Amino acid sequence: MRIDPHVHCRDGRQAYKETITHVLKLCDEQGVDIIFDMPNTDPPLLTERDMEARLALVPRDDLKRYRIYLGATTDERQLREAASLVNQCQQVIGIKLYAGHSVGALAVPGEAEQRKVYALLTAANYHGVLAVHAEKEALFKRSFDSAQPASHCLARPPQAETASIADQITFARATNFQGTLHICHISTAASLELIKAARQELNITCGVTPHHLLWSADHMKGREGMLYKVNPPLRHVADTIALRQALKQREIDWIETDHAPHAISEKLYPPYESGYPSLCLYRSLVEEVLPYWGVSEAAVKDITSIAIQRVFGERKFL
Ligand SMILES: [Zn+2]
Fold first, then answer.
1. Which residue of 131, 229, 270, 308 shows the fewest CB atoms closer than 10 Å?
2. How close is the Cα of 260 to the center of ligand 1, in Å?
3. CA of residue 9 to ligand 1 center, whole Å
4. What is the mean predicted confidence (pLDDT) over 58-65?
5. What integer pLDDT is reported at residue 52 of this predicted model?
6. CATH class of 3-317
7. For residue range 290-312, what is the model confidence (pLDDT) as tens digits?
8. 88 CA → ligand 1 middle, Å
9. Confidence band (pLDDT; 50, 70, 90) for 318?
10. What is the pLDDT of residue 104?
11. Would you state the pLDDT for residue 223?
12. From ligand 1's centre to the CA of 130, what distance in Å?
C-alpha cells in the first residue's frame, strides 16, 4: 500500500485546477493507494461541517483511499474541534499549520499566533500530527520579477524556511507539545540539519517532494521556468543533491508529492501561482529513479508507506 500524504485536490470553486475524482484516477496510474488532501481549499477546511461537506464530494467506494487535514487557526474552539476530529474520525488525518501564506488565504504568519496554536493543542491534549508549511513571511523579499522566474527562489529564500523550522521547534519545546511535528516539503540541507538535531527531544518528522529531489533552481531559467514556481522554491543544486543523499541515508521520513496543479494561464500570467502537478512524477521516481540512486527496496517501502502509517497511527489505515 503506497500513500501520498500531501496532495491538493482543490475541487469546489477551484475544480478547474484539480478535483478529488481526477486525483484518484491519477493515483491508479501512479500506483498510489491512499491520499491525504490539504485544507487550503476555497473555502478552507476547518470544522466538522467543512469535513462533512468535503467527504460528500468523494465517491463512496473511494472513501477508504481518502483522508483530509483540517487547517489550524488561532481560534480556540476551532482548534479543539479539529483536534477531537483527528482523535475520533478515521478520515481526518491531522492538523495543518501554514506558518506563511502559500496558495489560498489559510495562514498563521505571526510568531505569537503560531505559538498560541501549539499551546492550544497541548492544552487540548493533542497527540496527533501537526504538519507545518514552514516559511517565515518576515524574511520574504520583494524581489520577485516575472521576467525572471528564478527570482522567486530568492524572494522566498532558504533562510525563510530554516527560520520558520527553528520557530516551530522552539514553540513545540516551549509548550511541551505532545503530538508529532511534521515539517512538510523541506527544500534545503540546512533545514534537515535543524530537524536532525531536534529529533532527540521531539517527535519530529519531515518529507520531501519529487520536484525538490529531481530539480534545482536552474530549471527556472527562461520564461517557461515559471511552470516550476513552487513553495518552497526549487533550490541550488547542492541542496537537491543533499536531499537525495539524505533520503538514501533514511534521514527524511517520507516522499510527499505536494501535487498542486493550476491553470497554465495562472502560472504564466498573474497571479503566477505556485505549485506543480507532482503526483505525475510519482511512479517513475519511486520505481525507477530511487533504485537508480541506490535507495534499497526496503527503504522505498518505508518512505512510501510504512513510516507514514507508523507516524499517523495504524488505526487510520484499517
Ligand atoms: Zn502543499
1. 270
2. 7
3. 10
4. 95
5. 97
6. alpha beta
7. 999 999 999 999 999 999 999 99
8. 24
9. confident
10. 80
11. 82
12. 14
Cα 19 to averaged position of ligand 1 atoms, centre (Å): 15
pLDDT at 100: 85
What mean pLDDT comes out for the span 278-299? 97
Q: Which residues pair with 131 in a beta bridge?
A: 96, 182
Distance of CA 7 from the midpoint of ligand 1 (Å): 6
The CA 6 to ligand 1 mean position distance, Å, reads 6
221 alpha carbon – ligand 1 mean position (Å): 23
Q: What are the extents of the domains in the chain?
A: 3-317
> How far, in Å, from the CA of 248 to the mean position of ligand 1?
23
Kindly give the distance from the C-alpha atom of residue 5 to the centroid of ligand 1, in angstroms, as a whole number. 10
* Mean pLDDT along residues 113-120: 97
What pLDDT digit, counting tens, does each position of 231-278 carry? 999 999 999 999 999 999 999 999 999 999 999 999 999 999 999 999
Ligand 1 center–CA 8 separation, angstroms: 6
pTM (two decimals): 0.96
Cα(284) to centroid(ligand 1), Å: 21
